[in-house]
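Running co-folding for iron/sulfur cluster.
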Amino acid sequence: MSTSENSQTGCVLSEDVRRYYLDTMGIQVWQSLENQPDDIETDVPANSDVIWQQLEQAVSSCTKCELHTSRTQTVFGVGNKSADLLIIGEAPGRDEDLQGEPFVGRAGQLLNAMLAAIGFQREQVYIANILKCRPPNNRDPKPEEVGACNTWLQQQIELIQPDVILALGRIAAHKLLNTDQSLGALRGKQHNYAGIPLIVSYHPAYLLRKPVEKRKSWQDLKRIKLLLNSNGSST
Ligand code: SF4
């Protein structure tokens, strides 16, 4: 499999993956006749496992922002790659950085319980973050870090094509909705992200500090369940 290197990112993507994304964006790629092999396979479908693998590899070697210098490892995302529900948080914390998985530790356990309350197991949804690397001391992500990391999340969303997105916390909601409105103002209504219904709710880490808000969070979860049911989603 041939590869091409992005000179800005230092990340390596296979030619198959690069072509898949160009196809997805509706960009036709012309290939010189001189370079074509004798036996051209025209009907080989894009293998999504390979595409995911290549994307994860590209993220794991990403050096697009300064966070690559302090991470233990990247935290790519986890779950069902054909999920109806995509959950997007802010950035890895200490436990996530150590384990390489988003939403672990106490906040992760609370998220699992919240999902169970609307009939989901963690494995049935896909969970990712705006940033793939931990900001030191869990500080807020810088705009340039969010901007640099955006491409990875975009590609995950395009591959999953969820029915509903749940943005957990202020940072995720602000980035996905391109707004700086308060979380309170963004909650309780249905938004739209590239044609996909998007619901905003509290980050489980916040709910651990402020359990009184769990009641509102439950309202948000019920809204999600309704949306999924109205879409005829499988879960
Ligand atoms: S946070 Fe995102 S853009 Fe920055 S180094 Fe990590 S993967 Fe790359």
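Result summary
The pocket of iron/sulfur cluster is lined by residues 59, 62-65, 67-68, 74, 131-133, 145, 148-149 (CB under 6 Å).
The two ends are 36 Å apart (CA to CA).
Job closed.
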